[in-house]
Amino acid sequence: MKQMDLTQLRTDMLSDDLETQILTLDRACQMVQEIVAIPQRFLIAERLHRLGPTVIEPLQSLLVKSDNSEVKILSSLVLLQLGSRAGLEELLKAVVVDRTYALLIARHLATNKVYESVDRITNRLRSTDNSQIDLIVGLLTALVELRGEVPEDLMSRFQQPSTPWQVRTLIDQISEVRY
Asked: Is this model's pTM higher than 0.70 or not?
């Protein structure tokens, strides 16, 4: 989209004419729908929330219509940032199985205090290989932020000498706070 288009869009949104504002808002929604179809989805999604509540309806529509799991996850993340829980079930499923966005999802769920994600995050920790250090640390951090308990089986597993030091260090910190 050209800068000139955005300048005109802004001018029309600030118009005193209600009909012009409504038409401009419709154009903005159409642009959002075009933007979310761009292949570099993550780069768009991480900035899309800046458009505010205007994008909620197009994203909810995209969430329903799309068969692409990445589109559903990214749309759901933006919706959650904007206070909509429309894609929450998608995020709760994805935090357990998604290979690309699980850590980002866990962070968003924790930031937005989605307490019903504690069991899902715990399940993902159980199925995560010890070599996935960043994922484990991020999931544990999200779990702590949600005030979820790290189950004894995971505490024991992550305290083993074969566990990477980053994970053991975090588990030691969690243990100190716990007791």
From this structure: yes
18-59 tens-digit pLDDT: 888 888 877 777 776 665 555 555 545 655 555 667 678 888
Using the CB atoms, write b or e for 45-80: b if 16+ within 10 Å: beebbebeeebbebbbebbeeeeeeebbbbbbbbbb
**The pLDDT of residue 52:** 66
CA 24 to each of CA 7, 13, 45, 110, 156: distance values in angstroms, whole numbers, following the listed order: 12, 6, 22, 35, 58
Distance (Å, whole) CA 67 – CA 75: 12
63 contacts 87 by C-beta, under 8 angstroms? yes
CA separation for the pair 155, 168 (Å, rounded): 9
The amino acid that residue 173 corresponds to is Q
Picking from 144, 135, 136, the residue whose alpha carbon sits closest to that of residue 175 is 144
